[in-house]
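Progress note, project year one: complex with zinc ion.
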Amino acid sequence: MLSPQVIRRAPKVLLHDHLDGGLRPATIVELADEIGYGALPTRDPEALGAWFRRGADRKSLELYLEMFTHTVALLQRRDAIVRVAAECAEDLAADGVVYAEVRYAPELSTEGGLSMDEVVEANLEGFRVGMAQAAAAGHPIVMRMLVTAMRQFSRSVEVAQLAVRHRDEGVVGFDTAGPEAGYRPTKYLDAFEYVRHENFHVTIHAGESFGLPSIWEALQFCGAERLGHGVRIVDDITRTPDGAIHLGRLAAFVRDRRVPLELCPTSNVHTGATATFAEHPIELLRRLRFRVTLNTDNRLMSGVSLSSEFAAMEAAFGIGLDEMEWLTLNAAKSAFAPFDERLRLIATIVKPGYAALRAEGSAVVA
Ligand SMILES: [Zn+2]
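Model obtained:
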């Protein structure tokens, strides 16, 4: 049995979280006041958080994405981006996350006159500030950035070059996101080819609301090392009448090659990709030993933290500390940080952290 305290204290690794989906409601109110943004229904942080959750939970990826117009509108100034990125680091650290790759699409923050380079620099500066504050508060965290290109715009090559340009300052990979229908990964082939030719990392939002073709293209044409969601890989898994499980060619490839799946169950429930948490394919994929990782996607929109996602896993599927450590090791192994950094993370933070919690548990039982 995993208590909320144990879950929060256990070291966690987060690979799929959007900066513009994780603002604190109180910060939204303050940033909106500063620029006179009038499209919020309330100035009460708690009611505002609930409003975002209701807006996101409409069983449609397109409606879910609509809610981001409000957060993105507030991220048009350098100081706002620095603040939001710093608070992101502090909030994740307080939740027991020890390493996080948080993504943002710089194209979204250029309406106030910032260049895309300035947006990335502000984001990274915020991470540095937040990491320092988290360390001072006794919760050290490593924050890295993924630079996302939005599928509905056509600047993907420019964004890919931007990501590579900032690789030595904390950007560890390139991603594409946004509506899936009508925007297959191969539309952006030149951007992915550029990134691969630069020996840089690629993760792609694929197989979230759209099925197997987007996963296939992401892996076999675009060189995705990880799949953002990738949950629709279950469409290639069948159960025969005698109860045996059969993997199709693509599902077998994903499992054989240990392709990390950045699964975000609550977000999938809100976008309508899955009916309920308990029916989410994460449990089947975990039992079949796919390289499953557990993620938040959008902490504000979905009203979650990484700890609350683990608590939901415990409630729905009865996972314990061993399964939690396995999911965390999967994420640590799949991070885009260099190999020696990943080893250090696993050997000096993740494994000792779980061993200590296990020892505490047996001491209580004894
Ligand atoms: Zn996402």
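The first helix runs from residue 4 to 9.
Residues 4-365 form a domain with the TIM Barrel fold (CATH 3.20.20.140).
No further modelling is planned for this target in the current period.
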